[in-house]
Amino acid sequence: MKFYQNFIRTFNDLPDHTTLLVHSLSSCPFHCFGCHNYDEIIAHTPKEYKTTDDLFFYLEKSGFLFDAIMFSGGEFLIDNINDICDVLQQTRESFQGKIIVTTSGLYHDKVKKLYEEELVDGVHIDMKLPYHALDVKADQQVFQDVLRVKPSRKMVQNLLASIDLVIAHNSQADQVRTVKYPILDDVFFQEIRSYVEKRKIYFQSKVPYFLNEFLYI
Ligand code: SF4
Predict the structure, then answer these.
(1) With a 6 A CB cut-off, is 122 part of the ligand 1 pocket?
(2) 36: Cβ below 6 Å to ligand 1?
(3) CATH second-level architecture of 2-213?
(4) What is the pLDDT of residues 152-167, one digit of tens each?
């Protein structure tokens, strides 16, 4: 697995934690509206990159400076599940803090496996649209405007099933979040929040939900 050459320190990705943000240079099945990582990380893989050995060397030397590590992308879970598990297992062995993975939720089986094998403490999942309320045919254009792909029922099932997994896991290291895309009406965000709150009640979960401003850069 290859990683973006800059490991980034952040203070707000996981509240009350100093987090090491690591972007894999894996691709992404989506091309979301305004994705900040698309050009630099997804469309044009940089010639310079860090390897897994570089990452573990860095964690050995500087891991004590962080109390969480967040694996992001592109889509971190697009890679082979065995490679993903190896990286996370080695991280567990060499790092004391929490391990977080960010995902769109498309790879439901992989999210499930990471929880079952306790390779992550939390997953930060994007709920980009009120998937539950949209029809893949009648609302195809909305999916294409935001995710830039043609939706399928299977895709929507996976996205919703992953969101359920995160809510059911019920850790303060988990997160469901939405970008407030300027191309969507407020009713979309109200519908997403209402859905997440209902699923939280269903699973008796206190998972944090965040509606994040769209950042123009
Ligand atoms: S899923 Fe995330 S990384 Fe992929 S295109 Fe969308 S915003 Fe970018």
Answers:
(1) no
(2) no
(3) Alpha-Beta Barrel (3.20)
(4) 999 999 999 999 999 9
